[in-house]
Amino acid sequence: QFLADDDTIIIDREVAASERATGYRNFALANYMKSFGNLDHEPELALGIYFHHCAIAMSCRQLAMAGRFLANGGRNPATGLSVVSTERARRIGALMLTCGHYDGSGDFAFRVGIPGKSGVGGGILGIVPGVASLAVWSPGLNENGNSKLGSIALEKLARMMNWSIFAP
Predict the structure, then answer these.
(1) How far is the CA of 132 from the CAs of 39, 102, 125, 168, in angstroms?
(2) How far apart are CA 116 and CA 92, in angstroms?
(3) Average pLDDT of the chain?
(4) Where in the chain do CATH 3.40.710.10 domains reside?
(5) What pLDDT digit, counting tens, does each position of 9-25 carry?
(6) What pTM was computed for the model?
(7) First CA to last CA across the chain, in angstroms?
(8) Percent of the chain with pLDDT over 70
């Protein structure tokens, strides 16, 4: 709500409950991480927060607005206030580029060439550092769980605008 400047954004409690009820692999991974000391909090608490984040209900416009700080070096362009440090925004962008699309992250990086984060609801947040925060949505998912048409649209837009970090 804060970053998108929109108090109509909500957590869909039904979706969060569904995520929790079917998140067996997430529970296993969280417990595995905890066993190696790589999770500071109890898995139940960490996953509760994660499942609620997975259930944020927002439009493409709201998502793009919420991501503006990442395209603006960590600062909210509406207020000028720092949300995260420039270095942290850069790290988030690198993680989005390399890990933001599940097992399809490498292909997305190659084809689109901008940091992006996909959600299983069919939304994708794309960041062009210093230029734009954009969002697309189409619910049909590809074999990796990413929006098929959303990925194609971002690929075409990135090529047209010469935004890919791999562009000649």
Answers:
(1) 33, 23, 11, 20
(2) 10
(3) 95
(4) 58-168
(5) 999 999 999 999 999 99
(6) 0.90
(7) 38
(8) 100
- E-assigned strand segments in the chain: 10-11, 56-57, 116-118, 123-128, 132-137
Q: What is the CATH number of domain 7-57?
A: 1.10.1500.10
pLDDT at 167: 79
> Element (H or E) spanning 22, and its range?
helix 13-22
pLDDT at 168 over 80: no
Phi first, then psi, for residue 26 (nearest 5°) are -65, -40
Q: Where in the chain is the domain with CATH 1.10.1500.10?
A: 7-57
Residue keyed to tokens 């603006």: 72
87 by Cβ neighbours in 10 Å (0-12 / 13-18 / 19+) ranks as exposed
Q: Which fold has domain 58-168?
A: Beta-lactamase (3.40.710)
